[in-house]
Structures are given as structure tokens and as C-alpha cells.
Amino acid sequence: MGDALNAALSRLDDAAELLKLDPAIHQRLRRPRRVLEVSVPVRMDDGSIEVFTGWRVHHNTASGPGKGGIRFHQDVDADEVTALAVGMTFKNAVLGLPFGGAKGGVRCDPTTMSNAELERLTRRYTWEILPLLGPDRDIPAPDVNTDAQVMSWIMDTVSMSTDQATPAVVTGKPLLLGGSKGHVGATSSGVVICIRALFQELGLPVAGSRVVIQGFGKVGGPLAFLLHSAGMRVVAVSDVLGATVNPGGLDPIALANHVKETGTVAGFGGGDAIGRDKIWDIETEVVVPAALEGAIDVDVARRLRTRAIVEAANGPTLPEADPILHDRGIVTVPDILANAGGVTASYFEWVQNRAGYAWEEPLVAERLRTRMEESFHAVWARAVELDVSLRRAAFVVGVERVAETMAARGMYP
Ligand code: NAD
After folding, report:
1. 250-297 per-position pLDDT tens digit
2. For the chain, what is the total number of helices (H) and then of strands (E)?
3. 350: which residues sit within 8 A by CB, 6+ positions away?
4. Which CATH number is 278's domain given?
5. pTM of the predicted model over 0.85
6. The domain containing residue 322 runs over which residues?
7. Which residue's CA lies nearest to atom 16 of ligand 1?
8. Catalytic positions, please?
9. What is the CATH number of the domain that holds 121?
10. How far is the centre of ligand 1, averaged over its atoms, from the C-alpha of 291 (Å)?
11. 331-333/305-310 β-pairing
């Protein structure tokens, strides 16, 4: 079993123990409802045929249709997709969204493929997983290396194959095809909402406090700008090629321009260059991992000089690092809460598509804030009540809600 799946199941097991969960429900939650593996033959631009492998996993659909992104990456496998689907089940439950947990992926390296090859790959993969898809069955969204264009191709393939315009089958679409205002940047906005709520609980001021961000992509980039606008000092930012530090605070707009020109934060004139892994040694109030899985291992957990971690990335902290952070008094807002702004905005997009009526941006922002704050406070209260970390409390809240739904539905047949 892969590390990511082991980590997801160990956190489920821990919540089951804290809740004294019905063993039958626990056993059902330990296994995905269905795993579809498909082969995806694609005609490449040179005329040759390459056969890729793809998956779509429904972990649990008690609370509603499956919801979760599609990832194109050379390391994707069934276990990773299943682990991410497990995470989606409990993330949706923590936010109180009427969705189950799903995830998909194709094992490929999209950086070596042309746009036309990617379109053919997306359409054939969509065709192969079509029996699972639908606004009431399963609604994909973007994830690593997939974007609004990929969602458009999926929406078109489903719509053409059924001869029915079906915008509600995917979220994260362009506005033109039924995307929602406020969807772009919603994950970063959700992280900011969590930081504000956390700082209030910790008695820390937002303005003037320091933040270190790992990753400057779709989440980390807008996040640096939003936190700077909120008055925080973004003292260091890293990406895969390097890092930049400025104790007085980096200018995120100038940094974004530098990244646009050079493709990396390394060499930014408004800061000093440091090794990308040196960011963990910087004294700060909050650290936001917004890059890859497994960034905070035991070594990093021991080195960090921060009051808090807010997990924008999925799975950035290894399970072995959790107790070290807890013992050191470093409060961690877990991924299934902290980065849920994206799926919450996806829920709003799905609702708008089904109603055939688009919301204005302030309404999206207000509803995102309310739902994220309510979820944060539910998890915080549970952590206080049980005297456990926010991660353990978030899993308790999520597992409990799904288990109650499963119990209410009973088991078919
Ligand atoms: P992205 O590909 O746009 O950006 C990733 C960034 O991380 C890049 O700047 C890259 O250079 C950097 N990076 C990669 N390896 C690194 C390393 N070793 N050290 C430092 N930086 C490194 O991806 P994204 O969409 O911003 O997603 C980032 C994380 O957030 C992922 O874990 C993703 O699953 C999660 N997430 C994203 C969304 C979303 O809306 N995009 C929603 C929920 C969760």
C-alpha cells in the first residue's frame, strides 16, 4: 500500500477510535466503493499510438455524488488516487457539502505532450470513465496539471456523448461555459479565512505578522498577494528552483512579475536568495506549505520556528511529524479544512449550473467566508472538547458526519 493511502487510513483509524465508531461502518470506510482502472490509447502527433493508464475512484458516496479533482502526473497510481479520494470524502463532510469523495488521475507527463495530444488524452479518458460521471453521480474538477481548459474538454465530451448540454458535470470551468465568479483564487481565499480565524483564537494580530510560503503556483501565488493585502509580511517564498527572503516583507506583485519573466522566484531582486529548504529555519508566525505532499517530515517538524502551520497543499505533513508539531505547540490547520475553499467554490458552481442562474462575486465571497468560518469553529471546538490536535479533530468531525449519513441511509439491499 502506498504511503499516502497508509497516512489517510491511519488518520481514519484514529478518528474511529476517538469516536468509538461502529466497526462495520469503520470497515466500509476503509475501502473505496469503486476503483475504475482504464487504459487510454492516444494518437500522438507523430502518428504513433501510446497507451496510458487512468483511474477514477469513488471512495464514499453516502452524502452525495462523488466530488474531486483529476490529476495528470507521471507518478499517479491507484493508491495515490484512492488516498486523495479518501481525503475528499472527509473534506466535503467537514465543510458540510452534499458530496461524496472521489478523485481521478492519468499516469502521464503532460509537460512533454502537445495541447492536441492532451485534448485527445482528456477526451478518451473521459469516454472511458463516462459510466461514473454525471451531475448526480460524480463531478470532477481541476487538480495538479489540469485546468479550466481540461474541464471544458470533459464537459464537451460528456455533452456530445449524451447530446445534452451538461455544464454541471465538472467544476472549475471557464466563465463562458458556466464557471463561477470567484472560483479562481478560492483555495487561497479559504486559506486566508483560516489564518484570520486561527490568529483570533491564538490572540495574534494579522497585520504585521510574518508568513513563509512554500510554493508559488495557483495557490501560493494569489495567497502571497492576499496576505500582503491583509497587512502581513511575506518574509520568504520558495518554489522548486529556489527561494527568496526579505525580513521586511516581499512585494508580491513585483515577485509575480519576476516569476512571469523567469519562471521562478529564484533571483528576485526584492529579496535575498536562499536554498529552497532553508525557509523552514526562518522565524515566523505562520508557515503555509502550498507545494507538494510530504514537505514537512520529522526533520522539518523539529526545525520549524513558527507558531502555526496552515496546510494549503494536500498531505504536506507526514503522519510521523504530527506528534512532534503537537508536542512543540505548533498548531496545524489541516488540509481537509485549510484548502477546502476550492471545493466549496466548486459546490457553488454546481449549484449555479443546476439552477441556471449565476451569482455575483460578492455573494460567492460572502458564502465562502461564512462556510469556511463555521467549519473552522466546529473543528476548533471539537479539538478543545477532546483535547486533541486540529487535524485529529477535523477527521473526527468529518468521519462522524459521514458515519451518521451512512447509518441513516442503512445498507442496500
Ligand atoms: P501548482 O503546480 O500551480 O504550484 C506548485 C508550486 O509548488 C510551484 O510553484 C512549484 O515550483 C512549487 N514546488 C514544487 N516542488 C517544490 C519544492 N520541493 N519546494 C518548494 N516549492 C516546490 O499547484 P497548485 O495548484 O498551486 O497546488 C499546490 C498544492 O495545493 C497541491 O498539493 C494541490 O493538491 C493543493 N491544492 C490545490 C488547489 C487548487 O485550487 N489549485 C485546491 C486544493 C488543494
Report:
1. 999 999 999 999 999 999 999 999 999 999 999 999 999 999 889 999
2. 14, 12
3. 135, 139, 168, 171
4. 3.40.50.720
5. yes
6. 186-333
7. 240
8. 103
9. 3.40.50.10860
10. 3
11. parallel
